[in-house]
Amino acid sequence: MRIGLLNLEPHYTNIALEKLRKYHLGQGCIVEDCSPIESNGFDIVYCSSIFDFTSKKYITPDFIRGGTGFNLTTTLPQEIDNITLQINRGFTTRGCIRNCKFCVVPQKEGGIRAVGDLLEIWDTKAKEVVLYDNNILAMPEHFAYICSQARENKICIDFNQGLDHRLLTQEVVDILKSISHHEYRFAFDHPSLVKTVDRAIGLLQANGINRCSWYVLVGFDTTLDEDLFRLNYLRDRNQIAFVQRYRKDGVKVDIKKQRQLTALARWANQHHIYRGMTWEQFLKHPENKGYAQLFC
What we know:
The protein is built from twelve helices and twelve strands. It is α/β, with parallel strands linked by helices. Helix 5 (140-152) packs parallel to helix 6 (170-178).
């Protein structure tokens, strides 16, 4: 049997498709990546999408479809979902304790629970493992265990989805200091969180973790002034910001507002520009005349 795997966001590793790949290879099938226009030569095509705004233009009912980009209910058969993948990226927990209005994780995955450990993901050779856990700090004992595995095996961890700054304690920071890591990521989703963000940065800097990267959600329920407040606040505290624009299929887009948010991202997401000039200086730069006109 010839199996096709169609990842609609190919720049992301799709864990579900990789489990399907391993399962069908174990069954003696031919398994290949494919595109919509190449699907005719396959007996079965599995199609997965992470984001609902990704185009589904060429996806037909013949495909077996799954992922958040299609719905929140389709799951893999248990025997396939239980497959472990030593591909140096994946989850050790699923679910989250928060109920952020912009996030589907609690609805899709429920409360937080452990689903594995670092050694089930690691191929025993790579120097780095990328974790997609949504809120690993909500399970402090599990977090400590994962980090102990990283220390013992000299693995650099990338907490790709970010860590919950509200759950930082001295004990957690001591662990963060003890492991090889990428620049730690957190989120500053709303200006109402400024006190907890301030506390977190203070705790981190007091322990020698002077600079971290912060996701800044825009285009959801904040104004441009509130977005700029958060970006300037992080810049003043010697942090790195990453503007994360909210997108959802079916939500009407204000073109001018989207262009303004693009300007914010162009300033903040290029770290040398963000650190090198203020927002006002960015708008006054000759190359950014078109952006400046949006804010007159």
